[in-house]
Amino acid sequence: MNTSNRRKFIATTASLAVGTIAASAMPLNNIENKYPVVHHVFFWLKNPASKEDRAQLIAGVKTLSKIETVRELRVGVVANTEKRDVVDNSWAVSELMFFSDLAGQATYQNHPIHLEFIKYCSHLWEKVIVYDAVDA
Fold first, then answer.
1. Which end of the chain has fewer CB within 10 Å, C or N?
2. What is the total count of domains within the chain?
3. Tell me, what's the pLDDT at 8?
4. pLDDT of residue 34
């Protein structure tokens, strides 16, 4: 190995080591569960081939983030991952919400914004499944 390549190797190795040390020193706040109540909803569209319907449903779901007890909201569509027997990719849109407590989730259920979302978007879906969970 010539001197130039050896210096590059040493510099790269040193950078990787510093990055690893820095990453291991980071607080685990990103991993810790800040919001112990999870509300995960899966929607099946009446017209699954309609990009317009999907876009309208996504826009409607995003309005739910305005509800004060919703701490975090993620909206998703089916990922193009490996096909396996345990993977259900028959749905179209998912909504993943986090709440600080069960009272906040209950407030969300009866909130005018949520009720408006149902009123204006329920014609888009043929099936909805909800999974609610709390930290174990």
1. C
2. 2
3. 52
4. 86
Tell whether 38 and 6 lie within a shared domain: no
Average pLDDT across the chain, whole number: 85
Are 114 and 127 found together in one domain?
A: yes
Instruction: Give yes or no for a contact between 95 and 73, defined as CB atoms under 8 angstroms apart.
Output: yes
Q: Answer yes or no: do 56 and 3 share one domain.
A: no
The encoded tokens of residue 56 equal: 């309208």
80: its two tokens: 């193009």
- CA 96 to CA 125: how far, in whole Å? 17
Smallest CA-to-CA distance from 44 within 136, 129, 125, 131 is with: 125
The reply to whether 77 and 58 lie within a common domain is yes
Residue 115: give the domain boundaries.
33-134
Q: How far is CA 52 from the centre of its chain?
A: 21
**Three-state secondary-structure class, residue 13:** helix
Same domain, 107 and 56: yes
User: What does each C-alpha distance from 63 to 7, 29, 88 come to in angstroms?
Assistant: 54, 27, 26
